[in-house]
Structure formats: C-alpha cells, structure tokens
UniProtKB/TrEMBL annotation:
Residue ranges, annotated region (Disordered): 1-39, 122-147, 206-229
Name this protein carries in UniProt: G-alpha-domain-containing protein
Residues engaged in binding Mg(2+): 294
Coiled coil: none
Compositional bias annotation for Basic and acidic residues: 24-39, 213-223
Composition-biased stretches (Low complexity): 1-14
Cited InterPro entries: Gprotein_alpha_su, GproteinA_insert, P-loop_NTPase
Record GO terms (molecular function): G protein-coupled receptor binding; G-protein beta/gamma-subunit complex binding; GTP binding; GTPase activity; metal ion binding
Signal peptide: none
SUPFAM superfamilies: P-loop containing nucleoside triphosphate hydrolases, Transducin (alpha subunit), insertion domain
Organism from which the protein derives: Phanerochaete carnosa (strain HHB-10118-sp) (White-rot fungus)
UniProt cross-references to SMART domains, sorted A to Z: G_alpha (SM00275)
C-alpha cells in the first residue's frame, strides 16, 4: 500500500532535523536570517529598477559605428529580431525584394563576365583565318582557354530576363547603384546598391501594409512582386546550373573573384531552392545575410518588448560607414548613451572599396582611435564588436596567414582564438593610449549573421547600457 502524506513536501524538506543541537539551531536561524535579508535586498533592487525604468522617459540613444560592411545594419536587425519581434515580423517581408535583388545581381555579374569571355573568343576567332578551334584569350595566354560551349550560350540567353527583373526591383526599392569609386577614380567591379530613405522602401514593399496609397498601387506592387517570383522560379534550375558549372568556377578563379564570400551571396543550391520560388517568404537568416548599403544616418526607434529592458524605448542610429559618409556621424555624438563599434576582423588582408591603398583593419584602428579620443563621447559607453569571426575562421582554415599581412603577428598560432585575441589586444592598447575618460574596455567576438549567438551578446550589452544609463541619471 502506498504511503500518503498530509504535510507539504517542501515544508517537510525544510524542517529542522529532529536531533538538532542548540548550536546547530542557532547557526540555522542565522543562515535563514541572512537568506531573508539577501532576498529582501534583491526584491528592493528589482523594485528600484522597475521604478527607474518607468521614470526613464528619454529613449536610450545608441550609435552603431564602423567602416562600411562592418555589420552595423546587421546588428540593428538583430536588435529588432531579439527585442521587438512583433515589429520585426511586419518588417521581414519588406526584405524579400532586397534578397531577390542580391541573388539576381550576382547572377548578372557572372553573365557580364561570361559575355566578356565569349566576345574575346569571337574576336579572336574572327581575326583568325583558319577554321581551328578558338585560341586562348589574351588574359589567359598562360592558361588553356576556357571551354565555353553551347551550354554557356544557352544559359546566358535563358537567364537574360533577370536583367530586366533587376531593373524593376531597383526601381521598386528606389535603389541606386553605388559605384564605390577607387582612389584612382576607376569604378569597382563589384557594384553595391543603396536606398535613399529607410522608411519609404519598407512601407512600399510590405504588401500587407495599410499604408499603400491606393488599391491600384497595391495591386500593381503585388503584380510586380508575383512577376519577380515567376521569373526567378522559371530561372531557378539555370541559376543553379550556372553556379555549379566548372568552367564558370574556373573563370571566377582566374579573375580571383570569390563571389561566395561577398555580402548578399545567395547562389548556393540550398538558397536558390528556397528563394527562387513563386511563394518565397524570407527567413530571419536570409534577412541578416542580405546586403543593402546605408546612406547617411538612419534613426530606428525600438520599443523593447522583452528582456530586462522591456518597456523602454531605444533610439538606434545606423550610419553609412564609407569614408565620404563619416562626417555625418558627428552631430549625433553629443547626447548619445552608448556606441557599438564594429570592426570586421576577417578583413585583415583586404583593402577599402573606396580607397584601394588602405588596408581595412588599419582603417578600423584609425576609426577606433578617433572614437576613443573624441571628447564629445566622454560620457558615452563604448562597446567593441570584433565582428565577422565566422569569416575569419574560414579564411584562416583556408590557409591565409595573418603574418603575411600583419608582420608584427610573428609566429603566433594562425587560429581564430589566437588571432582574435591579438587584434583585441591591439584595440585595447589604442583605447588606453587615447583615453579621455576612465571607462571599461568592453569587447565581444561576434558573427552577427548568427542570430542566436548575437541575441545572447545583445542581452549582455543591452543590460550593461541600461544599468549604466540609469545609474548616471541617478535613477538607481
Ligand atoms: N559572414 C558574415 N557576414 C556578415 C557578418 N556581419 C555582417 N555580415 C554581412 O556583411 C554584409 C554587410 O553588412 P552590413 O550590416 O550591411 O554592413 P554595414 O556596416 O551596415 O555597411 P554600410 O551600410 O555600408 O556602412 C551583409 O551582407 C551582412 O550579412 C558576419 O559576422 N559574418
Ligand atoms: Mg548599413
């Protein structure tokens, strides 16, 4: 027969042992008293923070700074995803056109290169009197000619409609090409694009938005969106065939073009299968991987729905990071609470798109120095994200050695942890040398395309910013 208890098991567990001595009893009571006091202190702290949060009327201002393509806008998306899920769910759909455009632009880059290769072969054929097979192109005189066949001609022909889809998408987004002029004035091969106003393109692309100016426009927008999906779906097999083709890969290799490492790259089979469909709906992962250059300073107000900062309003400023954009940052320094500075450490062997003479890591160091030594920012907290650690890891594993670009690195181990620590130390020293106010050096190793890991980092960062802000405002 089972045993029945008419006493609460918890009470029973907490009850003093029946053979308790006087001395043990005194110690137990003392411990219980201590635990009670700690618990009351915690309650009081929670009560104070709650009251402070309610008093905190002013939004917490955070600036996202760093060079272009450092991950500022991607970090902003992570904030929205983690803390304003409802607002994010509405916004996600607007990114569909950006992702489709990212995918198509890489196809068009390949088609353009293919056209160049084909025209070389044709011009060499026509300049030759004989009926021999085409000769190697001038660029590839040392390597055998690319074996371009009827298959490539057909792929080029069948994928041609994507050019006009690209134009349509750019028009719908209000996007313009970003030519990324080089120091010499020459245009970069890898054109990027941007939109002028953050609010307009999003509202115009949310097909379920109530803000559509008229039924006619909404139908027009939906028709265009459906048409893009139709064309993409009909091209999906050819897109995959293009990317999987050995000759195309050889062509890219000869030109030292690693498209798969470019931002907004969606030509892998697993991506094309999802995105080039009639009813594609963006996943969070696609949105954080997409690329849309920021122009100027864009303000994003976020009402935190969850976490310890729930109920507070934050104003996040996402800025354009290329050199010509940086002068626009300064007016925002005055009353900002915190800066999240992003330095993409995978770029230690890359040059700035806008000035090919400047190493990207060196540019980040210079910017960091400017931020640390700026007197207007003396009251702001500064948090450093050493970003793109996933790409750094890939790069190191592919055999790229840090010491070849950074001689001072010496014979240290060429692995992610050692390299990241080395770069972190360098940023720390710069902060120490250019100190204007005593503040802790807060650094995080990040890959902000990893939304789960970034949510954890933002949890820590957000809590620190909030606490310091409340303390500084004498609310705690
Ligand atoms: N693999 C990887 N990609 C990243 C990471 N952070 C950002 N990216 C990608 O890099 C590209 C550029 O990121 P953005 O956030 O747009 O860069 P940004 O700093 O806002 O650039 P600007 O607007 O030009 O100043 C996007 O396609 C991102 O998906 C990262 O940690 N890892
Ligand atoms: Mg940006």
């Amino acid at each position: 027969m089972g045993l029945t208890l008419d006493v609460d098991p918890l009470t029973l567990a907490l009850a003093p042992p029946p053979d308790e001595t006087e001395e043990q009893r005194e110690q137990r009571l003392e411990e219980e008293e201590h635990a009670r006091r700690v618990s009351e202190e915690i309650d009081e702290q929670i009560r104070k923070e709650g009251a402070a949060l309610r008093k905190q009327k002013k939004p917490i201002k955070v600036l996202l700074l760093g060079q272009s393509e450092s991950g500022k806008s991607t970090t902003l998306k992570n904030f929205q995803l983690a803390y304003a899920a409802q607002a994010w769910a509405k916004e996600r759909l607007a990114w569909k056109a950006v992702i489709q455009l990212n995918l198509i632009r890489h196809v068009v880059i390949i088609l353009d290169l293919l056209t160049q290769e084909m025209s070389k072969v044709t011009s060499e054929e026509s300049s030759s009197d004989s009926d021999e097979p085409s000769r190697p192109s001038r660029q590839a005189t040392s390597s055998p000619p690319l074996r371009l066949t009827e298959k490539h001609r057909l792929l080029k022909l069948r994928l041609a409609p994507l050019r006009s889809v690209r134009e349509d998408l750019q028009a719908r987004l209000g996007a313009s090409d970003w030519p990324a002029p080089r120091a010499s004035g020459e245009k970069s091969k890898m054109q990027d694009f941007f939109v002028r106003s953050n609010a307009t393109w999003k509202s115009s692309l949310r097909s379920n938005s109530a803000k559509w100016p008229s039924d006619h426009n909404r139908r027009k927008g939906q028709d265009e969106s459906n048409e893009t999906g139709e064309v993409l779906a009909s091209c999906a097999e050819d897109i995959k065939a293009l990317w999987a083709d050995d000759v195309i890969q050889e062509m890219l290799k000869r030109r030292r073009l690693r498209l798969d490492l470019q931002p907004g790259f969606f030509l892998h089979e697993r991506d094309v299968d999802r995105i080039a469909t009639r009813d594609y709906s963006p996943a969070d992962e696609d949105v954080v991987r997409s690329r849309l250059r920021t122009l100027g300073v864009q303000e994003h107000r976020i009402h935190f729905e969850t976490g310890s900062a729930a109920g507070t309003d934050w104003c996040l400023y996402d800025v354009g990071g290329s050199r010509t954009q940086r002068a626009a940052w300064f007016p925002y320094f005055d009353d900002c609470s915190a800066i999240i500075f992003l330095a993409p450490i995978s770029c230690f062997d890359e040059k700035l798109a806008e000035d090919r003479r400047v190493n990207r890591l060196e540019d980040s160091y210079q910017l960091w120095k400017m931020i640390c030594s700026n007197k207007l920012l003396s009251k702001a907290q500064i948090i450093l994200f050493l970003n793109k650690c996933d790409l750094l890891d890939k790069k190191l594993k592919s055999g790229v050695r840090v010491r070849d670009c950074v001689p001072s690195y010496g014979d240290r181990k060429n692995d992610l942890q050692t390299v990241a620590q080395y770069f972190a130390q360098h940023f720390k020293e710069i902060a120490k040398q250019h100190v204007v106010t005593a503040r802790p050096f807060r650094v995080h190793l990040t890959s902000v395309v990893d939304t789960q890991a970034t949510a954890l980092t933002l949890g820590i960062v957000g809590e620190n910013i909030l606490r310091t802000q409340l303390r500084d405002a004498d609310l705690l």
